[in-house]
UniProtKB/TrEMBL annotation:
<keyword id="KW-0812">Transmembrane</keyword>
<protein>
    <submittedName>
        <fullName>DUF2474 domain-containing protein</fullName>
    </submittedName>
</protein>
<feature type="transmembrane region" description="Helical">
    <location>
        <begin position="21"/>
        <end position="44"/>
    </location>
</feature>
<keyword id="KW-0472">Membrane</keyword>
<dbReference type="Pfam" id="PF10617">
    <property type="entry name" value="DUF2474"/>
</dbReference>
<keyword id="KW-1133">Transmembrane helix</keyword>
<dbReference type="InterPro" id="IPR018895">
    <property type="entry name" value="DUF2474"/>
</dbReference>
Amino acid sequence: MKLPAALRSARPVEPSPRWSVRVLWLVAIWAASVLALGVVGWLLRLVLLS
């Protein structure tokens, strides 16, 4: 009875780290894309102003 209880307690804990890691990856990718767009826009402004 102890093993199933341990497995039951461990099961809900596993998806939360995986979910948080996926969210962190999504946030990192979103932040990188926003920064890339900002840099590209800044470079375009420099080219247009020059």
